Amino acid sequence: MNTPLHCRFLPCVLFLFFVGCSVQPVEPAELELGIAAGRGHDPVPELAFIGRTDAPFISVVDLPSMTEVAQIQVPGYSAFNITIANNRKYAYATGTGSDRLKPGLLYEIDLSTFSVVRTVVIDPNFSTTDLVITPDGKRIVITMYRKHEVAVVDAQTLSVVAFIPLTDNNDYVNGIAIGPGGRHVFVSSQVSGRVHVIDTDELSVAAVVETGAASVNELALTQNGQYIYGTAGGNDAVILIDARTFEVVENIPVSPYPVGIAIPKNGREAAVVHQQGYTQGHSLLTILDTRTASVVATLDIPGGARRIAISQNGHLAVVTTTAGNVVLVDIPNREILAVEELDPGSQNGLFGVAITNGARFNKP
Questions:
Q1: Rounded to two decimals, what is the model's pTM?
Q2: How many CA atoms lie within 13 A of 333 on its CB side?
Q3: HEC profile for 166-224?
Q4: I need a labelling partner for 351 at 20 to 30 A (CA). Which of 6, 17, 130, 142 fits?
């Protein structure tokens, strides 16, 4: 069943307002965080954090073994999207409480213990959806479902600094990406197809990009900071926005209904997942060459693809699906390495995914 986040959630369980949740390890293990260097295109042991729309925990999956090594319990009904701080000490996730769309929560996760150490209510009436952290680590910018605003949060106190209103009162805010330098944050709209540019210093909308697309889903910044890539599901295209002039400079035709997108640190290729064919139990992954803005490969993905994350060296991609599968992809060799049934009984599947680039998981 392919149900995007903006469409519906399952009935929620009673929300408990507390912090400091415990972790449930699947097997004894010890986490060591550090930069893995000198591996070239060799697979590097890393960790993927995977959210759910209908379960109160985040799965921690060891890569490339695809073993679930821990479950981070959250004090709400769900954990949607996850992002990892640059210092690699903490991760942050969005989620909801007792009602299916509220309250909108923010979880702070200690990566040394796999536990939630702080939980705050961002908005009592609207769910939080996606989020990014500014490069200096001082602010977290969060999108909210049907709020028509983005929240700017102080990363130290986890208090809301401002709610920034957008120009579209009847729109669904969806994807989010940090611009070059970190001052500007790009936020996509799923109904109007506009992309709002948020100034995190002035706490205001700096620009509105008229993309001409029927809808824009997820966003990602190229490694050189020149372009924002956006998936235009209604137009079967990937749009390129100049990250400095805020203008659309290219439309790349792709397979039907692209949704998630990720660009690794090496910046050579972008990976896009599509919802095409999900009713037949499969979907697609498109690989784009960012130097030529062209499609170079297409892979079949089992299950309805939803989100994607790529390791820092650009070798491994992790795709979450509506069927509860996690798909591991070798990007340079254009190959599906593994499919793990992480949540086979799920009614709404897996959602956001983030990878701790260079993190090692060592068994004692």
A1: 0.85
A2: 11
A3: CCCCCCCEEEEEECCCCCEEEEEECCCCEEEEEECCCCEEEEEEECCCCCCCCEEECCC
A4: 17
Domain that holds residue 52: 23-362
Band (244; pLDDT cuts 50, 70, 90): very high
Angle at 174 between CA 259 and CA 56, to 5 degrees: 90
The verdict on residue 14 lying in a domain is no
Query: Is 101 a domain residue?
Result: yes
What CATH number should be reported for the domain holding residue 303? 2.130.10.10
Q: Which residue type is seen at 109?
A: I
Terminal-residue alpha carbon distance, the chain: 40
Q: What is the amino acid identity at position 195?
A: V
What pLDDT shows up at residue 106? 97
Residue 16 lies in a domain: no
pLDDT value of position 236:
94
- Whether a cis peptide bond, with omega within 30° of 0, leads into 103 is yes
Give the number of domains in the chain. 1
Before 165, cis peptide (omega within 30)? no
